[in-house]
Amino acid sequence: MTEQTNPEGTPEFEGAPEPGPLADAPQADMAHVKRVLEAALLSTAEPLTVQQLKRLFAGEVDADNIRKVLDQLKVEWSERTVELTSVASGWRFRVKPDYQEFLDRIATEKPPRYSRAVLETLAIIAYRQPVTRGDIEDVRGVAVSPPTLKALEERGWIEVVGQRETPGRPAIFATTRKFLDDLNLRSIEELPPLDELQSSLEPAPATLVGIEAPSAPPEQESLIDESEPPESTEREAHAG
C-alpha cells in the first residue's frame, strides 16, 4: 500500500476503505438508532422482530440496545394517536383503538363480517387449543360446518398443527401468530378471561378487534355459508 498526501497535507493510504457513518464510534449513536428504527417500523405494515431490526445497523448495535431503544420509542409515542406495540411476530406501530372508528369511515376495504358460529368456534380454539373438530362440537353442542373452519383458516387465524392418533386421525387446530398480531397480543396467555369473551357474544353480536359479527340473520350472511347439516350426519362424516 503506497502513502500519498491529500490536499490538506496529511498522509493517507491508497486503497484504504472510507469509514461509514457510524464506524468512528464504538457503538452507534442511540439518537440516530432511534430515528432509524422509527423510520423502519413506520414504513412497514408487518411487525418486525428484534433480529430483523438489528440488520439495519450491520452488526453495530446489539439486541439489548435495540430493545432499550424500542422501549424508549414506546414511551415517546404513548400519548399520540399512533402507538408502538409488541405483538407475537415482533414490533409495529398501530392506530389506537379509540381512533380506528374514524379511519374506518374512509377505508376502501371493510373487515370481513363473521357469524356467531365463526366467532364461537374461534373462541373455543383459542382457549382450548389444540383441538379437533369433534372437540369444538362437544363444546358448542352442534355440528361445525366446513365453511366455518375454512373462513378462519383463510383469514390466517387458525391452522392445522397435526393429527390426533385416534381412528380417522382428525386434524388438530390451533391459533396462529397472525391471530395474536391482529388482537395486539404477544402470547395466548394475554387473552382476556373466557367469560368476558362469552358475555360479549351474548345476546347481541359483538366486535372482536376488526372482526364484525353480522347484524343480519344468518341466512342473509353472504361471506360464509352457515347452513349446517344435522349433527348426526356431520359426526358420521368424521372421527374425533
Write the layout of secondary structure elements.
Blueprint: E1 3-5, E2 11-13, H1 30-42, H2 50-54, H3 63-76, E3 82-87, E4 90-95, H4 97-104, H5 116-128, E5 131-132, H6 133-140, H7 146-155, E6 158-163, E7 171-175, H8 177-182, H9 194-201, E8 207-208, E9 211-212, H10 231-236
Antiparallel strand pairs: 1-2, 3-4, 5-7, 6-7, 8-9
Helix pairs in contact: 1-3, 5-7, 5-9
Give an overview in words.
The protein has 240 residues and is α+β, with helices and mostly antiparallel strands. The chain folds into two domains: 75 residues, Arc Repressor Mutant, subunit A; 112 residues, Arc Repressor Mutant, subunit A (Orthogonal Bundle). Helices cover 38% and strands 15% of the residues. Strand 6 and strand 7 form a beta hairpin. The longest helix is centred in the first third of the chain and has 14 residues. It starts with a strand and ends with a helix.
Q: Which terms would index this structure?
A:
10 helices; Arc Repressor Mutant, subunit A; three-stranded antiparallel β-sheet; alpha+beta; 9 strands; disordered C terminus; two-stranded antiparallel sheet; 240 residues
